[in-house]
Design the sequence.
């Protein structure tokens, strides 16, 4: 009749731990979860634990409780994937800026922030893009001093 197990865990911690271990061994879904998580370790692009839990129609907590090590590996793999994807996009963006600066400079026009931003197919982000723009202009020897 308890709605939440926290009261039971507080009053009977040892018994609850034993029941949890026994349930883990008994629960046939644990094997299904384990197979799904093992498969996720090889998927490309790597899925998130949230995506896996939705596909299995269970909560993330249950996946972590049943296979915490694999869940942490999946999470770390996804973080690495996001990090690498961001680096690739940053390099592509820098290449676009470099090409725009070179094109403008060849036409005899100063590659100002405004001109480069107008020709960039994506919005100009001052934090990562401006230092790179200045670096490219300095490498060409055309950076104006204030």
Sequence:
């Amino acid at each position: 009749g308890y709605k939440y197990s926290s009261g039971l865990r507080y009053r009977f911690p040892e018994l609850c731990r034993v029941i949890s271990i026994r349930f883990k061994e008994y629960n046939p879904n644990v094997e299904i979860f384990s197979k799904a998580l093992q498969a996720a370790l090889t998927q490309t692009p790597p899925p998130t634990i949230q995506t896996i839990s939705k596909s299995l129609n269970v909560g993330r907590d249950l996946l972590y409780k049943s296979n915490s090590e694999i869940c942490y590996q999946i999470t770390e793999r996804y973080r690495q994937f996001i990090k690498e994807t961001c680096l690739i996009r940053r390099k592509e963006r820098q290449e676009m800026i470099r090409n725009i600066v070179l094109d403008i400079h060849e036409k005899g026009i100063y590659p100002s922030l405004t001109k480069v931003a107008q020709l960039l197919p994506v919005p100009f982000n001052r934090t990562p893009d401006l230092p790179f723009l200045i670096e490219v202009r300095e490498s060409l020897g055309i950076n104006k001093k204030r």
